[in-house]
Every structure is written in C-alpha cells, then in structure tokens.
C-alpha cells in the first residue's frame, strides 16, 4: 500500500516536472527567436544609417555619425544576449547584412 502511494506521488511529480520543462523550453525558443529578430532589425537599421551617411547630402553630418556609433553599441549588447540564445539564427540573412555593411563602409570611405 505504501509503495503504491510513493509510486503515485512520484509519477505525479515527474509528470509535473516534464510539463514545466516543456513550458520553459517553449519560452526559451520564443526568447531566442525574438532576440535574433531584434538583432537583425538593428543591424538593418545600422546599415541604413551608414548608407545614408555616405550620401552627398548627409556626408559629414555629426548627428548621423553619432547615430551610427550608438547603433554599434546597441548591436554589441544585443549580440551578447544573442550568444546565449543562439538556437534560432538566420545565418543567410546575417550574411546578407554583413555584405551590405561592407558596401556601406566602403561607400563611406570614398
């Protein structure tokens, strides 16, 4: 009788723990996807600001230069979090951003 009670309690506790772990993993994946999207969006904005800065009309504008510098800092902070949640990265999108950022940097230098 006592053994049946102990086994029943153990099964109930294990079922609860499995449910809780599944719930935590779902939240973990949601956070991972959200941080990856946030990082890609901020990278896209930084590339846009760099390309805008290289335009003749805005070249040398100190506010845009400040914006670019602050975006680099924000991207570094987001990248720190992204390293923790690195399970849902869109590598193709990131490679495109790297290429676009190199283009914007080259245009800025000219």
Layout of SSEs?
Elements: H1 2-53, H2 62-84, H3 91-109
Helix pairs in contact: 1-2, 1-3
Task: Considering the chains and any ligands shown, give keywords for the structure.
110 residues, 85% helix, single chain, mainly alpha
Total strands: the figure is 0
Distance between the termini: 84 Å
State the helicity in percent bands.
over 70%
Mean pLDDT: 80
The unreliable regions are: none
**Shape from CA axes?**
rod-shaped
Largest sheet: none
- DSSP strand (E) fraction? under 5%
| Number of alpha- plus pi-helical segments | 3
Order of helices and strands: HHH
- Domain count, please report it: 1
Question: Would you kindly provide a written description of the structure presented here, covering whatever features stand out?
Answer:
- The protein is mainly alpha-helical and 110 residues long.
- It has one domain (32-109).
- It is built from 3 helices and no strands.
- The chain has helices spanning 2-53, 62-84, 91-109.
- α1 runs antiparallel to α2 and α1 (2-53) runs parallel beside α3 (91-109).
- The protein starts with a helix and ends with a helix.
- The model has no long low-confidence stretch (mean pLDDT 80).
Summarize the structure.
By secondary structure, the chain is mainly α.
């Amino acid at each position: 009788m006592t053994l049946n009670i102990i086994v029943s309690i153990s099964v109930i506790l294990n079922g609860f723990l499995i449910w809780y772990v599944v719930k935590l993993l779902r939240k973990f994946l949601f956070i991972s996807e959200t941080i990856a999207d946030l990082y890609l969006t901020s990278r896209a904005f930084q590339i846009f600001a760099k390309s805008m800065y290289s335009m003749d009309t805005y070249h040398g504008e100190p506010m845009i230069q400040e914006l670019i510098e602050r975006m680099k800092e924000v991207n570094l902070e987001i990248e720190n979090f992204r390293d923790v949640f690195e399970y849902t990265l869109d590598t193709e999108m990131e490679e495109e951003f790297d290429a676009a950022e190199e283009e914007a940097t080259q245009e800025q230098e000219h």
